[in-house]
Design brief:
With about 425 residues, the chain is of the alpha+beta class. The chain has helices at about 5-10, 30-45, 55-60, 75-80, 135-140, 165-170, 180-185, 190-200, 210-215, 225-240, 240-250, 255-260, 265-280, 285-305, 310-330, 335-350, 360-365, 365-380, 385-405; strands spanning about 15-20, 50, 70, 85-90, 95-100, 105-110, 150-155, 160, 175, 205. Bound molecules: adenosine-5'-triphosphate and magnesium ion.
Amino acid sequence: MNTDLASQAASSDQPLVLPRAEHHISRTRIDDNTLKVLYRLSRNGYRAYLVGGGVRDLLLGQRPKDFDVGTDATPQQIKKLFRNCFLVGRRFRLAHIRFGADHVVEVATFRRHPGPEELPEDPSEHAFFVQNQFGTPRQDAFRRDFTINALFYDIASFSIIDYVGGLADLTARRLRVIGNPLIRFTEDPVRMLRALEFAARLGFAIDEPAREGIYARAPLIAEAAPARLREEVLGLFRNGVGSQVLRRAQAMGLLAPLMAGYEGDDQTFTLLEQVDRLTKETGEADEALIIAALFVSRLWRRLDAAGQIPISEVLELSGLLIGPYCNHFRIAHGLRHQARELLVGSYRLSRGTGRKGERRFLHHPSTPKALQLFKLWLPIHGGDQQLAQQWQQAIELAQDNRQSAPKQEVNSPARRPRRRSSRPSRPRRATQRQPS
Ligand code: ATP
Ligand code: MG
């Protein structure tokens, strides 16, 4: 590819157009429903482009997670073309074309970057998603975050259209912000986290102005909507780059404002690498496990200093440690509770087998996952490797016993309600039993 030409395209009004013969995107790699949508829009006289991450990933020879479509048809015009179309989002500006029960192709009318007077007052809403003014394809490219995310694939000519120099950056494996990073990060601070994520996922270098922009604007990310940040952080783990990105975010001063003052240590980042590895294996990011992994090293340090303390206090301490993170991200009570149980469970596991209350612990629903965390943590913290093995066997045995125990008949004597004794009942214990 001619790099000079590509950079020229970034500055001139005319895009760089790469014809079919000069790139290797094949339609066989685009999903059928997306192709149907593109063709129908195009046959009806509208422009129909594949946009965003799908084009980037196809050009990199990777399998895109999803395909998005951009068009100059308005939402109402799109709705008229597709029976299975539902308008969604703020002021119904996005079209979802549904195929079957679980496949949606998202179609967005080209939009432009809003002027300063059009930006919402609340900075947490400075998201890309609230831009509702329709625009030209060129304007649509320039409102996007990074050059590599702003390429279009035109279904009418099978060519790639590049307004921003994204093709050159793909070749150079460089992540570059469209426009001035200081301004773009101020408009939407979440872009800083996205920069680190794409760099990690694709193995790209972040160019100098964007890096400087992150150092300069990092504190602003604290103002972004917590629900969105939580989703972005989970997304890092879903993509198997949680550890890498959070480590780099910390080095660049982005982690503390992102996660309510959180600071990770080397052991935590190593543990998170293991969590990423596990996620890649299972294909699922487990949020309770992630929260527990973020705080396990801190808990251990406190416990090492405190010596033996009752489990009830370990539970309390765990709650205190994860509190600021969970409050900031408005984590629901059930999930917090799970994360706390994983922390406490992994601590119980570290104390070895044969303690009081072990039977109940072995049958507790969170114990297998606590063991999973413990197994990841043990080699990092150091400790008897055989311990995890012993627990694994004990848990499996407990499960086997439970499965092979005879099921009680509904009306069997054991299930019959006990007859009330005529003796007066014993008074309740005034003090709570001390947990083991
Ligand atoms: P992924 O593989 O994670 O889906 P993606 O590039 O498709 O990567 P999405 O979050 O799905 O990312 O967004 C789709 C496209 O929308 C991006 O490629 C980019 O062009 C644009 N975009 C998304 N978020 C922003 C943002 N905060 N600011 C500007 N443009 C954005
Ligand atoms: Mg996407």
